[in-house]
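Handout for the seminar on molecular recognition.
Each group receives one record of this type.
Step one: identify the two inputs.
Step two: read the structure output and locate the region that could contact nicotinamide-adenine-dinucleotide.
Step three: write two sentences on what you found, then compare them with the reference statements printed after the record.
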Amino acid sequence: MVKAVVLGASGGIGQPLSLLLKASPLVDELALYDVVNTPGVAADLSHISSVAKITGFLPADDGLKKALTGADIVVIPAGIPRKPGMTRDDLFKINAGIVRDLAKGIAEFAPKAFTLVISNPVNSTVPIAAEVFKAAGVFDPKRLFGVTTLDVVRAETFTQEFSGHKDPSQATIPVVGGHSGETIVPLFSKASPSFQIPADRYDALVNRVQFGGDEVVKAKDGAGSATLSMAYAGFRFAEAVIKASKGEKGIIEPTFVFLPGVAGGEEISKATGVEFFSTPVELGPHGAEKAINILDGVTEQEKKLLEAAVAGLKGNIEKGVEFVKNPP
Ligand code: NAD
Ligand code: LMR
């Protein structure tokens, strides 16, 4: 039996993500939590003739406790999205507190659940969740994930003309680092099956993967950021975690994890100089079973991208850790 919970379920991501989870045969129970509108969203989804039993909660009457109790997997898309001209870090002021408080709820009511953080800035919100879990004595690094799947999905889509796949998701293109601008590093040289990108197209393609989010923010023109593609990506990652937890083997997805707490991660942490980093991770019954180091043998161009990513990541991670350790 799998109980999935969406925190921020009434939002632009939350609604289509809840739809995909409701439609999935892998989910037996689905609890929706938000500060607004969950009764309506839950009532709407409850008419779908799929397996999952659905419930909706608001903060009143212990709603968070009721939503989280018995959870196996919790996905967090709660928080404000960007408007044109904003960076993801500009969201920290509001979203840091939202993620901290929701993480406190998970620590209390569902300490063994897999926690998947979508709320931006992911480079800081995941360290925030980790610090909250540590303070509560329940931190299991194998169970905490920053969702960076949308960067992978974009890399697959934007390189289709070179990878040659009719279905672009058939390409495996690792994207490592973090989830904002220069901290996003597509490692095209590590794609499998391998393919060539013409030299005169390389910089533009890297830039498009790094700043794909801005493309959507600009096109939505003040109405938010990526929601539908994010729901697709969030569901893809959640499904991978659930399938692996049920014993399916060989599932590998890049995700932003606390490296020292995952087998194989220490080596990547030493090589990069950061503790939180997105790298391909082999998923298993207990979550992140193994962090896979694919940084050896990258190209000189990719080395430069990695240096810039790590420089940006350090400050983002520190900011998240400080927010919990020394609250403003
Ligand atoms: P949205 O404003 O449409 O929805 C956010 C939802 O969160 C709203 O329904 C709101 O009521 C709810 N919420 C606010 N405070 C809450 C709280 N304390 N508890 C529960 N729910 C709360 O925003 P969106 O477009 O769905 O984006 C959500 C977040 O996801 C943003 O921070 C955005 O930047 C981020 N995002 C991340 C990725 C990624 O790749 N990781 C991609 C796209 C968006
Ligand atoms: C994205 O990559 O689309 C998200 O992180 C949302 C954003 O702010 O760009």
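Reference statements: Residues 22 and 52 are 6 Å apart (CA to CA). The radius of gyration is 19 Å.
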